[in-house]
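Lab manual, section 2.4: Encoding a predicted structure.

Procedure: take the sequence of the chain (336 residues), apply the prediction step described in section 2.3, and record the output as structure tokens. A sample record is shown.
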Amino acid sequence: MEVELTDLVQRPKPVSVPGLGVTVLFLGAIALGALLGLSDPDLGANLSQGIDPTLLAMVGMLFFEVRLRAVAAGLANLRFIALAVGANFLVVPLIGYAIASLFLSGQPLFYTGLLIYFLAPCTDWFLGFTRMARGDTALGAALLPINMLVQLLLYPLWLWLFTRHTGVVDFETIPSVLLQWFLVPFIVAQAVRWLAVRLLSAAVFERVCEAVGFLIPFVTAALIFQIFAANVTTIAAHLEAFVPILMAILVFFILTYALGEGLTRLFGLRHAEQALLVMTTAARNAPLMLAVTAVAIPNQPLIYAALVIGMLVEFPHLTMLKQLLLAKAERKGSNA
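Recorded output:
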């Protein structure tokens, strides 16, 4: 039985692991990886051999979740789609570049990692927070494949525009990396999804999607564990940079919230649209960017560490945003 478009758009899958639970999961992966790497450096180094398979598994799962057919639903509100895409891919990159330059211009590796974290909008779990904030999840589902494809296409351009002065990136290798590691897996994952939609019942297909969504944070945690186990000594030697990274991320979250508020007032968005806009401009696609960067810019653990720090802060922040948006909605309701 084929799953109907309404099933894919109107019933988006919630976040399977609560946001704070994911933060704890990632913190545990960092702690365990660091302890193992410090206590047995040889074993930590050996674990790095499993990074590529873990990356491929995570990429495949993320691409399997992309619902290309959901884009059709978004065409009914092309005005909002254009607004969200413009905010995410024109305004937010400029905000991220300014913040990374301000806080980490003297640390090219951390600067590059933080900038990559800022550039890519989330394509998975932000939708769960949007639902909890009473946002428009059907419209959000239409944004997911758009965000995914646009950020992968823009990744080389972003790096060239914002990081070419650092000398960190080998730009000649990026096209082949994106082709081998992301275009091919994307086609395979979407082919598997297409077959599953047609071969499985709607209920079974929904359970498969839920299982994939549930596993993604754990596969991401496994990747973080491997990275820290193999590179803990290098990362530990630069702990003093973590404070400016955290400050930069905090400023980024404040400015993106202000951006969402400003656009809401300028365009007269209803609450459901505002909640979606605030969440999509705040949440970042750190798992996919970690995967892309690990293969596009290999053997640079400090870049990866900056991305991981962003992930740790993001879930508590999205939880606070949810509460703020709900409180605003209740105040508007009481004043109506």
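Check your result against the sample. The chain is about 80% helix and 0% strand.
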